[in-house]
Amino acid sequence: MQKLDVSLAERSYPIYIDRGLLGQDLIRGHVRGNQVMVVTNETIAPLYLDAVTRGLGDLQCDTLILPDGEQHKTLATLERIFDALMAHRHSRTTTLVALGGGVIGDMVGFAAACYQRGVDFIQVPTTLLAQVDSSVGGKTAVNHPRGKNMIGAFHQPRAVVIDTAVLDTLPEREFAAGMAEVIKYGLIRDPEFFQWLLDNQAALAARDTAPVAEAILRSCRNKAEVVAADETEQGNRALLNLGHTFGHAMETFTGYRDWLHGEAVSAGMVMAARMSLELGWLKQADLDRVSDSLAAWKLPVTAPEGMARADFSELMALDKKVQNGRLRLVLLNQIGDALVTGEYDPNALTRTLEAFCER
Ligand SMILES: NC(=O)c1ccc[n+]([C@@H]2O[C@H](COP(=O)([O-])OP(=O)(O)OC[C@H]3O[C@@H](n4cnc5c(N)ncnc54)[C@H](O)[C@@H]3O)[C@@H](O)[C@H]2O)c1
Ligand SMILES: O=C(O)C(=O)C[C@@H](O)[C@H](O)[C@H](O)COP(=O)(O)O
Ligand SMILES: [Zn+2]
């Protein structure tokens, strides 16, 4: 088993990575009180809920099964979590267990941040994307119809338990979406990892155990380092947002239905790379490498059909990185070296949108 620590100012928490962890007592070991509620969705429950609850039998263990899908990452669904906690009389010493992908993790984390002003929660991520990104770092949120993750809180989990065996049932499209966030770490801060991902593309696509575990470990290590240095995004944590300003606009435009988060991030990273080229920072050869690395996973590298430049402008203006009305973007100097923009030529953004949108 691999173990990493996320070292924060006030406390640290572990990330465990191995095949078969759901059958062990790791989750139980991080529950401090005598109540737990395992929250999952209707797709994951028949696959993995029993394996998780089996190890919690000496506690009051309640379960809640939510509908599946990004369109359900809402305040209304959050209310169902609070209703269940109240109905089963959970106290402030309860622990929530988020069993699922990033949608479940973000919602359960936010519910844990709010319920009785904050209770413990444990992340048990079941998608590649959640294992490499969303389960680590304590960003929790729900969407608003007008903007992605607009209502949320920073609330760190007690532990992250990554059982890589659950990826055996993950559909190919979801696996590829997770690879977009994996490639992101290479692009923003780890050029050797970027090259390693290219070299191991075939083995990763075949889901060979060792390279998949290594990709998860190196991703989590990158994320843990960034979060440890800037837990609440006062500075460099924003680099983890590469591609997300464009990507969140695409997700919102498509009503949180057609495009997966990782797919929107993929197209968004290509747009960010193109804008970096327009500013004279990134070389054309590197833009091509960014685009090819994502296209190799059949990820989108262009904007959704029908999305106009005005749609991007309107939705990007709501990005959480906007400061005093000024849009800040995460762009690339080169592969492995990202920055958050200060002043930049706004024509570079106009030219980028012209390159990706018909109108
Ligand atoms: N908090 C963060 O730092 C952070 C980081 C990245 C993404 N996110 C958020 O995460 C969400 C996307 O997460 P996601 O890509 O995991 O999507 P998801 O949670 O919707 O899961 C994707 C699909 O896979 C299914 N699934 C999950 N595990 C499975 C398994 N083992 N076998 C079979 N099917 C399985 C789910 O039921 C769902 O249909 C977005 O809302 C995004 O905003 C948050
Ligand atoms: O952990 C972070 O910080 C990230 O930005 C990770 C992103 O991959 C993730 O999608 C995150 O939810 C985006 O946050 P937001 O603040 O832009 O909504
Ligand atoms: Zn993301």
UniProtKB/TrEMBL annotation:
Residues engaged in binding Zn(2+): E181, H244, H261
Residue ranges occupied by any 3-dehydroquinate synthase C-terminal domain in the UniProt entry: 178-322
EC number(s) on file: 4.2.3.4
Pathway(s) this gene product operates in, as recorded in its UniProt entry: Metabolic intermediate biosynthesis; chorismate biosynthesis; chorismate from D-erythrose 4-phosphate and phosphoenolpyruvate: step 2/7
Keywords: Amino-acid biosynthesis, Aromatic amino acid biosynthesis, Cobalt, Cytoplasm, Lyase, Metal-binding, NAD, Nucleotide-binding, Zinc
Location(s) in or outside the cell: Cytoplasm
Entry cofactors: Co(2+); Zn(2+); NAD(+)
Family membership: Belongs to the sugar phosphate cyclases superfamily. Dehydroquinate synthase family.
Descriptive protein name: 3-dehydroquinate synthase
Source organism phylogeny: Bacteria, Pseudomonadati, Pseudomonadota, Gammaproteobacteria, Oceanospirillales
Gene name linked to the record: aroB
